[in-house]
Amino acid sequence: MKMASQAQDDSDDGMDAFMDKFTKEKYKGGFNEDNWEEEFDKVPMFMKTAPEVIDPQKHPELACLQSIIHGDDGTPEEKAKAFKDEGNEYFKEKNYKKAIVTYTEGLKKKCSDADLNAVLHTNRAAAQFHLGNMRSALNDAVSAKKLKPDHVKALLRGAQCCMELRSYGKALQWCEEGLRIQPKDRKLQELRTAADKLKRTAERDVRKTKAKEKKEHSEREALLGAIQERGIKLFKPERPYKHSSDSGDCGPDVAMAGLDLGGLGSQEATGSTVFLDEQGFLHWPVLFLYPEHRQTDFISAFIESTCFIDHLTVMFGEELPPWDTDRKYHPQNLQLYFEDYKTEQLYQVDLQIPLLHILQQDRCFVKAGSPSFIVLVKGSAYCKEFLSGKKVHRLK
């Protein structure tokens, strides 16, 4: 009894001595009002967020917990399951990136449990899906299905990924596989309905696109044939001039209609392009240039059989353009010319001649898809100055 009493006395004396230290020395490791929140955040139990990388020097407690959870003592199955559970926690927190990393670590353990590996792939697919990584998510779903063909969650995820990737036919296949296992699964049923509807719509759109392309190709061929048949020459200014003894010196780089439509790009110049109507007439966007006033105008659909005077009478009828301050641009006062782009010589156009007759002239070339003509006032001072020094031909 005396020995027990002595031990108790020693214990009490030791505690008294320990407590006495606080009256003489200040505890250096305690929290204070300035840093208590910071210190609390270092304690695993009170951490708001865990660090991306756990440094044993800075976070010894976390490192200890991590070693307990993912230590080398457990079997590959136990380690993989621990990573799966940890990944699930990250997933619940919507921290999908960390979830992916954790599920990946679980798969690296290469455990022999096919079902567990299938779950790891499926869960990683879900995390990838939420991050918008549809291809990676689909790859995981495929891997999960190989490991466990009847894993409905993997089949559902595969169908969802295919829907997002607009592979509606494949989405239907995933849904059908899942419904063979669980015929009453509501999500799979809804996905199958949506995939079937979208697949039909996509196939219809493809048919429409092909029909449109076929029609456009047919119209393009007919247009090319019509231009070639008329002997109209298309000038492509982006290429240098060429001389060819075989072609009889056809002038600038000319694209005959049967070979190339590169010279018909008039969209930028006028917003319109040449077209062939149902009666077989070509309609050209014709550009008019008024160098005296630095103005331009165009007719979006000048029928090839129409004469110039018909359009000029409408354009310069009772109401003259505002830039014509001298009021002299009357149809009977106007002269039209086209320019040979090779020689820069001018050819005067008879206003009573149809457009087609002009376009068929040897030295007339359609530039950028739009025939262009210079408009001058006959006998005006500017007209004389403009024509001075230029070689002018009059068409017969």
TrEMBL record:
GO terms for cellular component: cytosol; nucleus. Residues 277-386 form the Cns1/TTC4 wheel domain. The keyword S-adenosyl-L-methionine does not apply. One of its GO terms (biological process) is protein folding. One of its GO terms (molecular function) is Hsp70 protein binding. It comes from the Eukaryota. Keywords: Repeat, TPR repeat. It holds the Pfam family Wheel. Belongs to the TTC4 family. This is Cns1/TTC4 wheel domain-containing protein. It comes from Synaphobranchus kaupii.
